[in-house]
Every structure is written in structure tokens, then in C-alpha cells.
């Protein structure tokens, strides 16, 4: 979800061009630059680690470890997964978004909510639900199927938001120029969806690269699952590190591809004033058959987890709600909150700089903050584990390292909200505080940070949501005895104790649901609805 | 010859009657304007002509063919009617040339030449062809939108407040340019606007809509000087409305005896446009005399408020030139040129 937020950040960039931002704040920049630079350096650790390991083991070893059939197979698996799952997600997401936003389908608002709700179900719980239902599920086809169900909301959200914003006058113009309704959709509407399609596809692509639990559960090998497998057999294996390198290369390739495909276009509405709300396409005799799509998606993405979880809970009765569940809830909440607060604090210097002192240095530092969020958790964890084992053994498997991992993975989420709300606190207020005798530091704390508090809270919440559903890095970094909902769920399902695992899945969904719905409501509000 | 014929068009949205039995005909080659305050139904009427909406009842006939008969009819993309909307509605993902060529038949061989011709027609430079819509000014966007619509060689062009987003100076310029281009191409045009002066200067036939009804249609001169009722009179320009008693073509009113049109007799309300009244200094206190109570200097056009003697009417506001402007407190006489209009 981090990248979804980044798209918003870019939108902010266009809304407040650099020239209009305040360049002359009186709170000195230097300490902020130093702090932001430290965080940026820290963000470079995973990438630096991969680079250093590659150099350290030597080209010959790299060749034997990377260029072998097994790695080729993993790369192919991952490529197939991306090539099939992303187009399918695009079709499903665009069709669903069109029906809920631009057609007269009955209960459109209900379907819109139901299309977003699957985000509250962690991907590995989706595959748990399907494997419980059809135990024979495995391989590429199943991987694609569950991945589309778990991730298509990442495309649905931005596509639906853009569809709501498109100026219907443009479509009228196309009709007056002789285009039939279907042609209007393909020649005028679809091209304007390019940016949300690129952003959403990138997000799904990165998730497909980094997801471990979903694919491990249905026995489909990807680069990420192979790294975790290697890691579990030996902690600092060059083989795992090298596959990590391949995985990072794939990520960077996806990021570059998206930049290339998205282009440097501006597809915003050209005219002035507000657009008329779009007419909903009359579906006519297809109005009832059209219900099949959103209803089927709701059944597959929500119905199946609901039914299987319900069945396991029913079978388990009260006995499965033991003290361990409560313990895991408490541990998860503590970790999520601590990680959320820490990540948000780490994001403050950068957020402040990018609003108050934009420039080349700031863009560079900010890029460091953002890229690390798109690295797979497995790579971040691998780097932290290897470095602590090698140089900082006392820190190995400590809370500090776990939290450090969370900070790296979720930095962009905290940054986006914080940056937007600092932009809402004008520098003039800070100056007024200083004119009334506050020191620069006091002015920052008492005025700007106070005003930025709502954005900071949103950042904490988003990071906490991520941590609650995080599995891979937590598995690799958590100290002995630390059991979050996700890791506890995972170890129980690994023992095929699906009944005992159910309460943990339910608790994860219960904790995520309010935040997910809030996110949807917020995205509608940013779209001006 | 009639090109477009609207017969008894009605359209309702929920509880709002957007159009109520509107009938209106537009001759081939003419320029018509539909004018009315916001919410009067003028945009709905335009969207029905374009085919974006269908009337609940009534018929739209275009060039001898029936386009809409109640809620059934020909969809927009098969009508061949051009439209230029409020802010151009250019396709943001296409260049200017691609926008203009959008409506061409597939694989048109002389595409580049036609784009160049259309650009020239709307007085844009060739260099514009590769630009993107967001790199154009508002006026340029409107010209591209016009060129795009012209590319289909429509017989009828609908203009949906195309000038309202532009600055005052540019607006007049664009209006003249569009007028010129359409005239040269021999295309019938219907302009929808809430700006009455725009409607009066653009069209040779104006229709006034109010609350979904067609109040009056006719030439700009007829509408301005012989409005059907006082709302229309005030909508189309400033007016001085006076109660009067009419006998033998002469109204007896606060301004003395004023010649009126028509053969109405008895009590009635008469209307004069302020430019028909002249303020002349006169301390003799004649019957049509009064005292200046306020003067607003406005450069070329100044406003003088005159309270008439012995009449319980609000002061009459008269636009006058800044030459020999009276001062507050001066005694003046109000002379009327031309005839007054009588509301029957």
C-alpha cells in the first residue's frame, strides 16, 4: 500500500510546485538535513548490503550461484506470475471500477465498498482460505488466481478514483465526433486511466515479487519463497543473498519500467471550474447480468475467507480462543504501535525538508526514503540479519532490529501523510511564534508539529496496519518468544493445524478492517467526493 | 429553410421540470442564441439537440430527419452535429493535431493537410500541432475544440457557453473569430449563454428561456425593444419601468407625455431603455423635471440618479456621458427619445 501513498505524494508535488513553496523558513535546515541524511543512509543499507555481498563473494561465485537452472526456474515462475496476474487484475479492476463508478448497476456503492474490503484480509490468509477449501491447490494457476483476488483492490482503488474525476464533457465531445459508446471507452476513457493503471500495476508487481506467505501456502516457488527457504536452512548463506540480489534487480526493473510507461504526462482536466458529475452508463438489459462480476468477486475475495474461517471457528469452538491468542494480540498491538511511532518520527526530518527546503539534495534524500519501501521485506530482513550476525552480534534477534526492519519497510507510508500535513502548516505561523519569543525549536514543536499531528496520526495508523499483517520480515527478525498474530498463524498453519490458526486470522482481519475502510473513505475525499 | 426544428420538448429530472414544452426552429445558415439565467434549462436543451440526452416528450427534427421522438432516437455519435463546450473538453492524452484529427474517418489519406487547414481556419499557428492541451491558453484550447468539431464538417454547430471561461477582452475577440469562421464555412450555429449581451451581438435569432419555458424568440432588436414581460426586459438590459395611463398612443406618466407603440388604451406599465432618456439641466421645474440625488462617475459611462418631483417612485437611474455631468442637487429635466414599449 506504500506506493499508493507515494502516488498521492506526487500529486502533492504538482499541486505545490517547487517555486511556490517557501524557501526562506527561519528554522535552520542544517540539523534537519543531517538527520534526514542519516535516515537516508540507513535506508541504503539493504541495497548496500546486496552490493557488498556481490563484491565480497567474487564474480565466480556469483556466476555459479546466480546462473543455475534453479534460479532460472524461480525467475521464470516469477515472470509468469507477473505477466499473467497483472493483466488479469487490470481487466477485473477496470471492469469492476467501471460498473461501480460509471454504470447504473444496482447497489453501486455497496459493490464499491466490497471491492476495497479484501485489502483487510492479509494475502496469506486468502491462500489459507482457499487451501482449506480446495487442499489440492498448487502451482502457477493457483498462485495467479489467489494473487488476483488478494491484490486487485490495489488497482481498483486508483482506477475508481480517477474514473470519478474524469470530465464527462470529454466523452460527450468524442460522441459528437462520431464515436460509438464502446469506442469512446477504449479511445478516450482508457487512455486517461494510464497513470492509475501504471501505479496500481507497479504496486501489485512489487507485492508479487515480495510475497512469501501466499505462495508458500499453495506450494508455488518464487524468488521470495526460495530466499526464506534458504534462510531457514542456514542464516547467512551466500545462495540466499544472491537470490536476494536477483530479487532486488527485478524490483528496480519494475520501478524503471513504470517510470517509462507512465511517461511525463499530465492527464488532469484541462479546463477551469468544476466538472459536471459523470452520467452513469445505462446498462439496459445487461443491468442484472452485470451484477455477476462484482458479486462473484465479492464471493471469491470475501465469501470464501468468511466461510472457511467460520467453519474452522465453528469446528474449534471456544477451546481455540486460549491465552495465546490474547498474548499475540497484545504483542502485535505493541509492536505495531511502537513501529508506527518510531517510523513516523524517523520520517519527520525528511517530510519537513521536502515541504520547507525543496531542492536537489532534498529530492535525492527523499528518493532514498522511498525506494526502500518498495524492496521486499525478505531482502530488508536478510540484510539486517546478515549485518548483525557479522558485525553487531549483540543486536541479533532483538526488538531493536525488528523495529529497524519495520522502519525501513514502512518509511514511505509515514512520509506521505506527514508531508501533506506539514504543507498545511504555513511557515508564517512559525515566524509569528518566533516573533512572540519562541526559539526555532519551540516554534517547530508548538506550532508546526501540532498542526501536523493529524497527518502524523494517519501515518502511524498506516504503518501499524502494515506491521499487523507483516509476516516475512517478522519471521526472520523477531527475537525468540515474540509471537505476532501473523507469525503465530503461520507456525500453526505450517503444522496444518488450520483450526487453531483461525482465531489469529480473524483477529488480523478485525484489526485491519477499520483502517482499510478509513483509507477508502479518505481516497474518496481526496477525489473531492 | 428550416434546418433544426424542436417541437414541444419536455424533460424532467426527478421533481425538477428542466424543459416544459419548448418549440423552436433554426433556419439553415443562421445563427441562433439560447439565453437564460442559470437553471433555465438551456444546457439541457443543447444536450438534447446534441443527443447526449433524450426528451421525455417532443420531437427533434434535423435536416428533414427525425432525431428524437420522445425518449427514443438517434444517439449522439450518429447525428453529425458539432459541439464546442465550456472549456473545450480537449482529450488530455492527445496532441493538438491528434485532437483535431480525432473525428476524421479512419485512415484519412490527407490527414496532415486537413489538420493544417483547420488550424489555419481557426487562426492558430502550425507549430501548435504538436502541443498538448495543457500547454495551451484558454482561448487556444477553444480554437482547437472548434477546429476539432469543424473537422467533421457538421451542418450544425452547438456552442455551449464557449466564451464564459475566457477573460473579458479575449471573450469578445473569440466571439468574433468563431462567428467569422462559422460564417465562412456556412455552418448553422446555436449559442447557449447566460450573457445577454453576448447573445444579442452573436445571433440573428435569440430565444429566451426561463424556468424551462421558452418565453420569447425573435431578432435581437425585437427582443430588446419589445420584450414580452418585465422579467425579459430586465434580463436583456437595464430598463425604466413606469406606471402610465394611455390614450390615443400617448402615455401619461411620471415623465410627462410619452409616445407609445401599439394601440393599447387605459392603465398599463410602460418600459423605456435608459439610453432613450436624456438628462438636461433645467431649473424651471417642468412636469418631467426632478432633482439629481446621486452621481456615479465611471469614466466613459456615468450614472445619474434623478428623483422625480411630486412622484412616489424610486430615483430613475440614467446612463450618460461624462460631458456636462450634473452635480447632486441640480435640477434637471428628463427628455425621452423614441417611443415607449407597453406591457399589455
UniProtKB/TrEMBL annotation, chain B:
Keywords: ATP-binding, Cell membrane, Ion transport, Iron, Iron transport, Membrane, Nucleotide-binding, Transport. Pfam families: ABC_tran, TOBE_2. It comes from the Bacteria. Residues 4-236 form the ABC transporter domain. Gene3D superfamilies: 2.40.50.450, P-loop containing nucleotide triphosphate hydrolases (3.40.50.300). GO terms for molecular function: ABC-type ferric iron transporter activity; ATP binding; ATP hydrolysis activity. InterPro entries: AAA+_ATPase, ABC_SmlMolc_Importer, ABC_transporter-like_ATP-bd, ABC_transporter-like_CS, ABC_transpr_FbpC, Mo/tungstate-bd_C_term_dom, P-loop_NTPase, Transp-assoc_OB_typ2. The keyword Acyltransferase does not apply. SUPFAM superfamilies: MOP-like (SSF50331), P-loop containing nucleoside triphosphate hydrolases (SSF52540). One of its GO terms (biological process) is quaternary ammonium group transport. GO terms for cellular component: ATP-binding cassette (ABC) transporter complex. Belongs to the ABC transporter superfamily. This is Iron(III) transport system ATP-binding protein. The lineage of its organism: Bacteria, Pseudomonadati, Pseudomonadota, Alphaproteobacteria, Hyphomicrobiales.
Amino acid at each position: 500500500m506504500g506506493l499508493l501513498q507515494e502516488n498521492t505524494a506526487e500529486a502533492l508535488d504538482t499541486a505545490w510546485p517547487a517555486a511556490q513553496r517557501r524557501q526562506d523558513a527561519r528554522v535552520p535546515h542544517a540539523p534537519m538535513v543531517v538527520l534526514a541524511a542519516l535516515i537516508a543512509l540507513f535506508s541504503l543499507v539493504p541495497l548496500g548490503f546486496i552490493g557488498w555481498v556481490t563484491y565480497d563473494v567474487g564474480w565466480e561465485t556469483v556466476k555459479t550461484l546466480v546462473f543455475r537452472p534453479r534460479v532460472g526456474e524461480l525467475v521464470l515462475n516469477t515472470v509468469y506470475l507477473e505477466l499473467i496476474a497483472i493483466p488479469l487484475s487490470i481487466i477485473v479492476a477496470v471492469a469492476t471500477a467501471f460498473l461501480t463508478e460509471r454504470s447504473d448497476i444496482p447497489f453501486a456503492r455497496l459493490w464499491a465498498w466490497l471491492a476495497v474490503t479484501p485489502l483487510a484480509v492479509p494475502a496469506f490468509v486468502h491462500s489459507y482460505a482457499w487451501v482449506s477449501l480446495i487442499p489440492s491447490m498448487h502451482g502457477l494457476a493457483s498462485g495467479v488466481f489467489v494473487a488476483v483476488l488478494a491484490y486487485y483492490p490495489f488497482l481498483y482503488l486508483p482506477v475508481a478514483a480517477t474514473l470519478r474525476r474524469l470530465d464527462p464533457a470529454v466523452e460527450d465531445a468524442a460522441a459528437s465526433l462520431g464515436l460509438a459508446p464502446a469506442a469512446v471507452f477504449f479511445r478516450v476513457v482508457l487512455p486517461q486511466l494510464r497513470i492509475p493503471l501504471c501505479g496500481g500495476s507497479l504496486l501489485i508487481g512489487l507485492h508479487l515479487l515480495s510475497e512469501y506467505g501466499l505462495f508458500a501456502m499453495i506450494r508455488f516457488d518464487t524468488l521470495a519463497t526460495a530466499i526464506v527457504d534458504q534462510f531457514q536452512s542456514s542464516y547467512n548463506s551466500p545462495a540466499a543473498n544472491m537470490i536476494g540480489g536477483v530479487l532486488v534487480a527485478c524490483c528496480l526493473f519494475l520501478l524503471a519500467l513504470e517510470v517509462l510507461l507512465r511517461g511525463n504526462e499530465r492527464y488532469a482536466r484541462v479546463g477551469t471550474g468544476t466538472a459536471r458529475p459523470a452520467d452513469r452508463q445505462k446498462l439496459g438489459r445487461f443491468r442484472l447480468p452485470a451484477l455477476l462480476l462484482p458479486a462473484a468477486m465479492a464471493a471469491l475475495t470475501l465469501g470464501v475467507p468468511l466461510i472457511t474461517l467460520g467453519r474452522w471457528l465453528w469446528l474449534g469452538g471456544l477451546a481455540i480462543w486460549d491465552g495465546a491468542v490474547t498474548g499475540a494480540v497484545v504483542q502485535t498491538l505493541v509492536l505495531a504501535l511502537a513501529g508506527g511511532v518510531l517510523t513516523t518520527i524517523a520520517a519527520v526530518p525528511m517530510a519537513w525538508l521536502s515541504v520547507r527546503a525543496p531542492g536537489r539534495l532534498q529530492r535525492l534524500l527523499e528518493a532514498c526514503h522511498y525506494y526502500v519501501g518498495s524492496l521486499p521485506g525478505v531482502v530488508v530482513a536478510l540484510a539486517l540479519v546478515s549485518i548483525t550476525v557479522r558485525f553487531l552480534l549483540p543486536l541479533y534477534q532483538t526488538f531493536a532490529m525488528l523495529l529497524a526492519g519495520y522502519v525501513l519497510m514502512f518509511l514511505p507510508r509515514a512520509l506521505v501523510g506527514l508531508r501533506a500535513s506539514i504543507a498545511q502548516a504555513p511557515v508564517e505561523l512559525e515566524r509569528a511564534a518566533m516573533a512572540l519569543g519562541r526559539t526555532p525549536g519551540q516554534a517547530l514543536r508548538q506550532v508546526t508539529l501540532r498542526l501536523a499531528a493529524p497527518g502524523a496520526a494517519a501515518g502511524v495508523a498506516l504503518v501499524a496496519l502494515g506491521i499487523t499483517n507483516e509476516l516475512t520480515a517478522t519471521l526472520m527478525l523477531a527475537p525468540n518468544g515474540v509471537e505476532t498474530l501473523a507469525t503465530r498463524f503461520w507456525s500453526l498453519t505450517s503444522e496444518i493445524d488450520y483450526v487453531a490458526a483461525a482465531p489469529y486470522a480473524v483477529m488480523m482481519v478485525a484489526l485491519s478492517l477499520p483502517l482499510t475502510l478509513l483509507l477508502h473513505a479518505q481516497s474518496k475525499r481526496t477525489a473531492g467526493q | 429553410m428550416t434546418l433544426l426544428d424542436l417541437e414541444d420538448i419536455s424533460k424532467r429530472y426527478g421533481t425538477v421540470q428542466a424543459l416544459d414544452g419548448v418549440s423552436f426552429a433554426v433556419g439553415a445558415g443562421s445563427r441562433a442564441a439560447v439565453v437564460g439565467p442559470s437553471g433555465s434549462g438551456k444546457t439541457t436543451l443543447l444536450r438534447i439537440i446534441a443527443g447526449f440526452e433524450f426528451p421525455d416528450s417532443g420531437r427533434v427534427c434535423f435536416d428533414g430527419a427525425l432525431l428524437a421522438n420522445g425518449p427514443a432516437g438517434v444517439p449522439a455519435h450518429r447525428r453529425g452535429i458539432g459541439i464546442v463546450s465550456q472549456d473545450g473538453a480537449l482529450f488530455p492524452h492527445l496532441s493538438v493535431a491528434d485532437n483535431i484529427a480525432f473525428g476524421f474517418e479512419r485512415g484519412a489519406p490527407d490527414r496532415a493537410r486537413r489538420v493544417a487547414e483547420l488550424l489555419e481556419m481557426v487562426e492558430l499557428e502550425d507549430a501548435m500541432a504538436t502541443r498538448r492541451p495543457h500547454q495551451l491558453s484558454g482561448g487556444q484550447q477553444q480554437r482547437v475544440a472548434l477546429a476539432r468539431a469543424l473537422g467533421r464538417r457538421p451542418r450544425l454547430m452547438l456552442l455551449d457557453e464557449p466564451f464564459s471561461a475566457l477573460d473579458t477582452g479575449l471573450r469578445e475577440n473569440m466571439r468574433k473569430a468563431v462567428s467569422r469562421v462559422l460564417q465562412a464555412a456556412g455552418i448553422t450555429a446555436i449559442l447557449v449563454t447566460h450573457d445577454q449581451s453576448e447573445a444579442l451581438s452573436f445571433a440573428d435569432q435569440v430565444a429566451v428561456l426561463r424556468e424551462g419555458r421558452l418565453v420569447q424568440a425573435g431578432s435581437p432588436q425585437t427582443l430588446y425593444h419589445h420584450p414580452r414581460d418585465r422579467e425579459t426586459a430586465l434580463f436583456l438590459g437595464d430598463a425604466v419601468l413606469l406606471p402610465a395611463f394611455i390614450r390615443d398612443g400617448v402615455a401619461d406618466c411620471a415623465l410627462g407625455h410619452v409616445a407609445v407603440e401599439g394601440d393599447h388604451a387605459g392603465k398599463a406599465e410602460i418600459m423605456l431603455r435608459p439610453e432613450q432618456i436624456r438628462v438636461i439641466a433645467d431649473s424651471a421645474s417642468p412636469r418631467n423635471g426632478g432633482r439629481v440625488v446621486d452621481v456615479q462617475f465611471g469614466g466613459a459611462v456615468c450614472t445619474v440618479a434623478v428623483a422625480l418631483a411630486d412622484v412616489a417612485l424610486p430615483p430613475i437611474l440614467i446612463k450618460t456621458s461624462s460631458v456636462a455631468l450634473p452635480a447632486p442637487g441640480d435640477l434637471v429635466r428628463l427628455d425621452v427619445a423614441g417611443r415607449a414599449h407597453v406591457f399589455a
